[in-house]
Structure prediction request, 98 residues.
Amino acid sequence: MKHQPISRDEAWTLGVKAVEFLFAEPTRTERFVKLTGLGADAVKQGLAEPEFLAGILDYLLADESLLFEFSAFAHVPAAMAHQARRALAAGETSGSGP
Prediction:
């Protein structure tokens, strides 16, 4: 089944939701910080950058169980994370961005 492309705003929102998901639970936050070396300040600064949000989605996409947890948290199909990652990394979105 082919999915409709998501807008820039939708991709951005999903990327921010991914950050919210990672920081909503201490175990996830601790693992993220340990593996990436990024703390809260770096993440806050990165929220304005589409490439950073694409990287956050890459982090989720690299771990299938984490991806499915995020999918449930955000109430979206897992495939939408793939679409948002591509859109943010390539600028292939139709909206104007935040």
